[in-house]
Amino acid sequence: MAVPQATKEWITAEDGEKIYTKKWLPANGSPVATVVFCHGFGEHINRYCHVFEKFAEAGIEVYGYDQRGFGRTGKKNNNLGVTGGWGISCSDITDALRKQRKQGIPQFLMGHSMGGGLVLHYATVGMERNNISGVIACSPWLDQPPAIRAGWMQMWLGDIGSILMPNRTVSLSVDAKGISHVPEVIEKYKNDKLNISKLAISGVMEILHNGRKIRDTDYINLTQPLLMAHGTDDPITCFHASKELFDKAPSTDKKFEPWKGLYHELHNEHQQDQVIKLYINWILERAGKSN
């Protein structure tokens, strides 16, 4: 029996940046839908192999890449933690959407954590926003939970730092115990040499300000079919910020899936099969190919 295929490729962006990409392809080579995916802070695309192998088995083609400053991309360009800003990140998404689009095949945009906040931002301002068949945001970084939220003094100092030293990186240590209840996942995360815990000051502030901006004003443009999923006990990104944005979004086809008691990486929890199935079925329903 034919099995889904995964391919990897280094591409060169218009500004010369080398970007590591990966694609998961259905076995028959004829996808019913395509997805462009953006990973989270400090990680890399190969942490999602177990997720997108199942997407490919369901006939969904997935294209992802190590974002600027992270994973193999960050190592290759010697700029770990420096993303270049959301303007450049959005340009990378635009390039990916245009290059991976297939005539007559629905195309979706999906992201986790930092990537979740980024795809929501793109859905409100991105050049290809009107050509997206749907958006999936998993545990998006729209705000920090109250226990670790930056105060006004930290925000003020961060804003000054982002002007004076925009590419100066700061440590944003992620407590691995907060990503999942599964001990093996935690150990694997801690031992993964491609994971990092630093980000440019300007990048940190951009995430925090844009997370607030999309909830205050830009949400009005969030009109695409929308699926948001978040663990109620996520200690890394704010569940309530996700719910706030979801409630405000004017999309007429939207679904919010709260996972009671779960942590940050829903796709790496004990319930991962149910979580992945949720994403797949939502895409297939909107592609007109539901089981």
TrEMBL record:
<dbReference type="InterPro" id="IPR000073">
    <property type="entry name" value="AB_hydrolase_1"/>
</dbReference>
<feature type="domain" description="Serine aminopeptidase S33">
    <location>
        <begin position="30"/>
        <end position="270"/>
    </location>
</feature>
<protein>
    <submittedName>
        <fullName>11811_t:CDS:1</fullName>
    </submittedName>
</protein>
<dbReference type="InterPro" id="IPR029058">
    <property type="entry name" value="AB_hydrolase_fold"/>
</dbReference>
<dbReference type="InterPro" id="IPR022742">
    <property type="entry name" value="Hydrolase_4"/>
</dbReference>
<dbReference type="InterPro" id="IPR051044">
    <property type="entry name" value="MAG_DAG_Lipase"/>
</dbReference>
<dbReference type="Pfam" id="PF12146">
    <property type="entry name" value="Hydrolase_4"/>
</dbReference>
